[in-house]
Amino acid sequence: MPTILDGKALAASIRRRIQEEAAKLPRRPGVAVILVGDDPASQLYVTNKIKDCGECGFFSRLIHYPVSVSEEELLGAISKLNDDAAIDGILVQLPLPASFNERRIIESISPAKDVDAFHPLNVGRMVQGDSVLWPCTPRGIGRLLDAYHICVDGKTCVVIGRSEIVGKPMGLLLLQRHGTVIYCHSHTQDLAAMTRLADILIVAAGRPGLITADMVKDGAVVIDVAMNRDPVTGKFTGDVCFDEVKDICSHITPVPGGVGPMTRAMLLENALTLARLHMGLLAFDKTSAALLEEYH
Ligand code: NAP
Questions:
Q1: Disulfide engineering: 138 pairs with which of 41, 65, 170, 193, CB 3.0-4.6 Å?
Q2: Is 146 designated active site?
């Protein structure tokens, strides 16, 4: 049997530590969450984020707009939050309804309050390898690898997916840890030939059943990021055929209970980092000092 990478348990211990750290701060870290529209999945994610903040002793503010809200009104609300000293992190729940210019909205968030790490300045610093913030999903996977002493250095890492929020930053994180990184996507010609090279296989395509046992190298570490909701049962499944792949790999994440809880915990960690920066409590490195100077 492979080692099951238990993201649920690890996330719970990280939340406990964050709660302890937050209690030592001169004021509560503050997170603002903006939700537009009534998409049930987005509503659930937002509810969970607010609940997580409460559990860790953070102050949180939910701003819920109807889908009819104007882009200018949304930008105005973000501008006020950028200037609000009680708010350390601002999050706009994505995807926004199609009528919004998502990029414009994200770029209006102060990089020093960009708790999701999606602002181009933070993305640029991440590419340069010196960011204090990382998008939550890759950051959570990095922590999961650390917790199970999985070394990336020198390993062949195959990432399936090249989205801005998961695939691309995931590959960068593995590269920063000295992995040899191969990105795969919907234009990759022979996916199985690529995945069979992987010592570490990260799957984030959103295609249930994509990865079968014959596509996995003996002893590989398999991280299934996907959360596909079964239309019949309503349950979540990943992209990896867990029951067959588990007999081949050395480590594997379950779905649910693997990457998902880690993503949630990393949002809190990013918020704590930003709160410390704003309170002048983080030992400033060059990057974080510059971030504050430029944007405050
Ligand atoms: P996305 O923006 O839809 O990106 C999917 C990526 O997979 C794209 O790069 C796409 O290629 C690639 N792809 C699709 N079909 C493929 C195939 N047959 N072979 C190879 N590559 C293929 O999705 P995302 O936001 O990155 O999310 C990916 C999955 O992770 C979803 O299931 C999502 O629900 C889940 N997710 C989970 C968490 C978590 O915390 N567990 C967090 C975020 C997302 P192209 O670029 O060529 O289109």
A1: 170
A2: no
Residue bearing tokens 């950051």: 139
Q: Is 71 exposed, middle or buried (0-12, 13-18, 19+ CB in 10 A)?
A: middle
Residue nearest to atom 19 of ligand 1 (CA): 186
Q: Which of 93, 199, 239, 246 is catalytic?
A: 93
Query: Among candidates 100, 112, 123, which has minimal Cα distance to 35?
Result: 100
| Residue nearest (by alpha carbon) to ligand 1 atom 30 | 226
Residue nearest to atom 35 of ligand 1 (CA): 226
Ligand 1 centre and the CA of 204: distance in Å? 4
Active site residue 116: yes
Kindly list the structural domains of the chain, giving each domain's residue range(s) and its CATH number in brackets, ordered by start. Answer: 27-112 (3.40.50.10860), 136-260 (3.40.50.720)
Cα 137 to ligand 1 centre (Å): 12
Q: What pTM value is reported for the model?
A: 0.95
- Along the chain (296 residues), what's the average pLDDT of each consecutive run of 10 residues? 97 98 97 96 94 98 97 98 98 96 98 96 90 93 98 98 97 97 98 98 98 98 96 93 98 97 97 94 59 49
